[in-house]
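Quick one, tokens below:
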């Protein structure tokens, strides 16, 4: 999170991150874009709450984060993940080298998480509000 940055600021940060993607992010994006995983749409460098995440499927609330060396000991990642999970997101973190060394397995893991039903779904026809 960037302290003191509002929604418009996060949008600008996300736009800049998309423009300056890492090689790993560009490689993965080629496999996530255009609904290639079971027809589910992913967005890249997307503002989610007070954070910008690498990739997100908003429908299933799945976030994919790619970590390079800079994240090895970053305590902020734990705080960020806890906040995102509290908001109902499943957060998948992978090391950059996993994208290149085992792309097939990596994409299968994302696919499996996307297709896994929510552990506590609402009964058929209920929306979670009392209208």
């Amino acid at each position: 999170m960037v302290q003191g940055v509002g929604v418009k600021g996060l949008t600008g940060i996300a736009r800049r991150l998309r423009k300056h993607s890492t090689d790993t992010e560009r490689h993965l994006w080629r496999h996530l874009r255009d609904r290639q995983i079971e027809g589910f749409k992913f967005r890249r460098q997307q503002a989610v709450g007070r954070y910008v995440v690498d990739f997100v499927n908003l429908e299933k609330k799945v976030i994919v984060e790619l970590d390079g060396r800079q994240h090895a000991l970053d305590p902020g990642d734990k705080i960020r993940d806890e906040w995102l999970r509290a908001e109902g997101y499943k957060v998948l973190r992978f090391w950059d080298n996993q994208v290149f060394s085992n792309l097939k397995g990596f994409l299968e893991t994302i696919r499996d998480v996307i297709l896994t039903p929510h552990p506590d779904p609402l009964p058929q026809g209920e929306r979670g509000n009392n209208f």
